[in-house]
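Re: the request from the purification team.
They wanted to know what the chain is likely to look like in 3D before they choose a buffer screen. I agreed to run a prediction and write the result into the notebook, where they can find it.
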Amino acid sequence: MTIPKVAPPPLPPQATEDAPLSVQLERLIATHDPENAYAAYWLIANCDTFNRQHDRMIFDMDEVTQHRNLIPYRGMNDSEKQHDAKLCAGMTERMRLSRFDYLETAAKAGVSGAITQVAEEGPFGDRSALTTRPDDPLVQEWKAKVLDQLAKEAESGDLSTLNYLWVHTVTGDALIAKNPALTYRYAVAQGLIYRDLKGPTAIEATMYAPEGQLMMSIVELKPEQRMAERAAAQRIADNAREAGKH
C-alpha cells in the first residue's frame, strides 16, 4: 500500500461513530461549519478509496510518538476494514460526487489542508485534465487560482500546504513546477515552525534544519540563494507565530 500524497486528517468524533454514512454526512453538513464540510469530504473520499482498494490510510499518532515516523498513518487492521466495509456500502454515486462541493466550501474558507486536496483532485475532480487539456481556459483558470491559494497558504505558515509544496517542487508535476529555491524555503519553514512548536530537538525541526543532511543533499543552491531562502522561511515561521495558526 502506497502512502498518498495527501493523507486524510483525523476525523471529528461525530464522523467516527457507527451511524450510517448518510446520517453522518447530514449531521456534519447541517452545522454549516467549513471544518465539518472538510470532514464530510474526507468521509466520502475515504469510502471511495476503501471501495476501490479495500484498504486506506489510518491516522495513528503512535507512528510518530512510538515509532518516530514522520507520517502518522498506517494501513487498516481487520476490524477497521470490517467497519469501513459496512459504512461504505451505503455510499451512492451522488454522495461520491458531492464531495467536491464540500471540499470547495472548505477550501474557500481556508480550512487547513483543503487547498492541497483540491490540487490533488484536479480540475473539477479530473486530475488528468492538467495534461490532456492544458490549453483549456477553464483548466488554466482553475490552475491559476489553485496555485495562488497554495502560495498564500504557504506564506501564512500552514504546515499542510508547506509540506505539500516542498515535496512537489522537488521534481515538479503537471500543476507545480520544479523549483529548488522554493523546495528549500518551504521545507526549512516547516522546520522553523516545528522548532517553535516542539523545541529544537523535535524530529521535524532537525530533519528540516537549513544546513542538515536532507536540505544539503536534496537541493543545489548557491550560498547566497540559501541565505535568501532561509530568510524567506523565517518570515513564514514568523507569520505562523503571529497568526497563532499552530
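For the purification team: The longest strand covers residues 58-59.
Please add any questions underneath this entry.
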